[in-house]
Write a structure and sequence with these properties.
The structure is a single chain. By secondary structure, the protein is α+β, with helices and mostly antiparallel strands. The chain is 43% helix and 14% strand. The strands form four sheets. Strands 12-8-7-9-10-11-2-17 form an eight-stranded mixed sheet, sandwiched between helices. Strands 13-19-18-16-14-15 form a six-stranded mixed sheet, with helices on both faces. The protein has a three-stranded antiparallel sheet with strand order 1-6-5, covered by helices on one side. The chain is globular, with a radius of gyration of 25 Å. Belongs to the carnitine/choline acetyltransferase family. It is found in: Endoplasmic reticulum; Mitochondrion inner membrane; Peroxisome. Keywords: Acetylation, Acyltransferase, Endoplasmic reticulum, Fatty acid metabolism, Lipid metabolism, Membrane, Mitochondrion, Mitochondrion inner membrane, Peroxisome, Transferase, Transport. InterPro entries: Carn_acyl_trans, CAT-like_dom_sf, Cho/carn_acyl_trans, Cho/carn_acyl_trans_2.
């Protein structure tokens, strides 16, 4: 039975969840503290007059609705394991009606492999699948070690729902389903997608033993043999506006065959997309591969060879490009990296060894869909809309190899904060003004913790950016301002991961007002509130042991999406923007970021710590 997302979790005790119930609950920050920090983060973005008006609105909120809403929120926190988590799943994901492709689902690009051609692709895919199943054993047996941050254990629930999970479209709101690994009827199959055909492929024997690499290879070959010509791209429906897809889903599931196929996908452990070669493109192969992971490249490329609602779908093309696309409802990037890093390590430990197996295998089952004229018309509509989205996205990767974390740490500075200040300088140099900037801050120190916002644009970062563009400011002063900006950012980061951020608290105050039939307070209607949360830079650090990078789209039309993997001797950046806004350019931002990082290194190198 597919289990719907629930407010209360029953997590089995074991090594992975050994500290789960002892983790603290997410606190509700003090109202006065949040409002003070809110004004501080608004200051660099507003004129004097705008700031004065916002100050007055905040003051009024603090003495009128604020305390009432704060009390209601504290009462909610006392009754819930995590006062935010259910709200956040709906507000950030399930209630959103925009297509999830580019807007919600990130892509992950893993290092290109040496295999070439379909025969070698299938051999590698079999090994890759074995690696994922090996990780599943660790999840099921709870041998995945508890992660820590600053020596403190982190909530591991996100790992619990990576596999056997799927998003289901709805007309007003979506749902998310997963099958517990402790379900007596837990699934034994994955989905394999090739030329738009979707197969159900058993990867466990009836006795529960996993198939060998050779046996999985046989299963994959059987899928290829049954899908020599393309099928209608039924998977492209998952790229539609969620309400449109929700209505079609309700119509499709009235047919028993369609319902059975859709439930098979929802229950599968994960999906594997076997793509052909990427067609030629005018962008470099690595960036093109990233686009393929993010959106499939369009309907004439591989976008129909996907099921974007599936929590984890691994993508392997015929020319060695590999990665994944994941539906964001249940987990952030670090949990995904935990899977992918394990699989890459597993592959490196294994050796090619293929010999036909003589054991009896249940053959793959091709999933059937009864597609009528209305569905076919909607498939065509989805193809057209996705092709527009694909064409509109500008993507650029940046492998910055001049230095990495080692140099920054030698300067006794936080690498993440340093990179965030570089983003501020890069943006300021292009636009001569600062912008609201979102950095993902983890709340996994708390039970069921997800994220809060680290507001990277600060008065300190703006002072530094202005100084860097003013030749009259001496380098010694610029170094001082750089260090102040980095330290300021690190302080805000530490407060946020300790549950003292402001954005989720403000969201909670707004939602608790609505939940209690109250009017939305003026604070949230103030243009300054909108300005300070119009994230022109949406950023996230997702570190990997490999030369891999996560990528996602901007969250506003005139902004950038930036994910980065900081390594000891290099930084890897994935930068996206929309061509429809002529003011943005991933290429120009990449150039500005490169110059900013080099200039910041030069400043520090020319003013060593011993001379400060």
């Amino acid at each position: 039975m597919v289990v719907k997302e629930q407010s209360h979790y029953i997590i089995p005790r074991g090594r992975t969840f050994s500290v789960q119930y002892s983790l603290p609950k997410l606190p509700v920050p003090q109202l006065e503290q949040t409002l003070k920090k809110y004004l501080e983060t608004c200051r660099p973005l507003l004129t004097d007059d705008q700031y004065k008006a916002t100050e007055q609105i905040v003051h009024e909120f603090q003495i009128t609705e604020g305390p009432v809403l704060q009390k209601l929120l504290e009462e909610r926190a006392a009754k819930h394991l995590n006062w935010l988590s259910d709200w956040w799943k709906h507000v950030a994901y399930l209630d959103c009606r925009d297509p999830i492709v580019v807007n919600v689902n990130p892509g992950l690009v893993l290092p290109r492999q040496s295999y070439r051609g379909q025969k070698e692709q299938l051999a590698f895919a079999a090994k890759f699948i074995c690696g994922v199943l090996d990780y599943k054993v660790m999840l099921d047996e709870q041998t995945v070690p508890v992660e820590t941050l600053g020596g403190k254990p982190l909530c591991m629930v996100q790992y619990y729902q990576l596999l056997t999970a799927c998003r289901i479209p709805g007309i007003k709101s979506d749902t998310h389903v997963f099958v517990s690994p402790y379900d007596p009827d837990k699934p034994r199959h994955i989905n394999v997608i090739h030329k738009n055909h979707i197969f159900s492929v058993d990867v466990y024997h009836l006795d529960g033993a996993p198939l060998s690499e050779d046996e999985i290879h046989q299963q994959l070959q059987a899928c290829i043999d049954q899908s020599q010509t393309p099928a209608p791209p039924i998977g492209i429906l998952t790229s539609l506006n969620r309400t449109v897809w929700g209505k079609e889903y309700a119509r499709l599931t009235k047919d028993k065959t369609n319902l059975a196929s859709l439930e098979n996908i929802q229950r599968s452990i994960f999906a594997v997309c076997l793509d052909g070669p990427n067609p030629p493109s005018d962008i470099n192969p690595t960036d093109w591969a990233a686009c393929i992971m993010l959106h499939g490249g369009g309907c004439k490329v591989h976008s129909g060879n996907r099921w974007f609602d599936k929590t984890l779908q691994f993508i392997l093309n015929a020319e060695g490009y590999i990665g994944l696309n994941y539906e964001h409802t249940t987990a952030e990037g670090p949990a995904i990296i935990g899977v992918s890093d394990h699989v890459m390590s597993y592959i490196q430990r294994r050796h090619d060894s293929y010999s036909p197996s003589t054991s009896s295998l249940k053959p793959p089952v091709k999933l059937d869909f009864n597609i009528d004229d209305e569905t076919e018309e909607l498939i065509n509509k989805a193809c057209a809309e996705l092709d527009v989205a694909v064409e509109n996205l500008m993507f650029q990767s940046l492998f910055f190899k001049h230095y990495g974390k080692t140099f920054i740490k030698s300067q006794r500075l936080s690498p993440d904060a340093f990179i965030q200040v570089a983003f501020q300088l890069a943006y300021y140099r292009l636009y001569k003004e600062p912008c609201a900037t979102y950095e993902t801050g983890s709340l996994r120190k708390f039970q069921l913790g997800r994220t809060d916002t680290i507001r990277s644009c600060s008065s300190a970062s703006l002072q530094f950016s202005k100084a860097m563009e003013d030749p009259s400011v001496p380098d010694s002063k610029k170094v001082d301002l750089l260090r102040q900006a980095v330290v300021s950012h690190r302080k805000y980061t530490d407060e946020t991961v300790a549950g003292q951020g402001i954005d989720r608290h403000l969201l909670g105050l707004k939602l608790i007002a609505l939940e209690n039939g109250m009017n939305v307070p003026q604070l949230f209607l103030d243009p300054s509130y909108k300005e300070s949360s119009h994230w022109k830079l949406s950023t996230s650090q997702v570190a990997s042991n490999y030369k891999a990078f996560l990528c996602f789209g901007p969250v506003v039309l005139d902004g950038y999406g930036i994910c980065y993997n900081p390594q000891d001797e290099q930084f890897i950046f994935a930068i996206s923007s929309y061509k429809s806004d002529s003011s943005t350019s991933s290429e120009l931002f990449s150039d500005s970021l490169t110059k900013s990082l080099l200039d910041m290194q030069f400043l520090l190198a020319s003013h060593p710590l011993s001379k400060l």
